[in-house]
Amino acid sequence: MFKYVVFDVDGTMIDTEEAVMYAYQSVIFKKYGRYFTEEELLKGYGVPTPQSLQRYGFTDIESAVKDYYNYLVEGFKLCKAFDGINDLLDNLKDMGLSLGIVTSRCNYEIKIDNCLQNLLNKFDAVICSDDTQKHKPDAEPLLKVMERLGAVPEETIYIGDTLFDRQCAKNSGVKFALALWGSNNADNIDADYFLKSPSELLELIKA
Question: Is the pTM of this model over 0.70?
Answer without folding.
Answer: yes
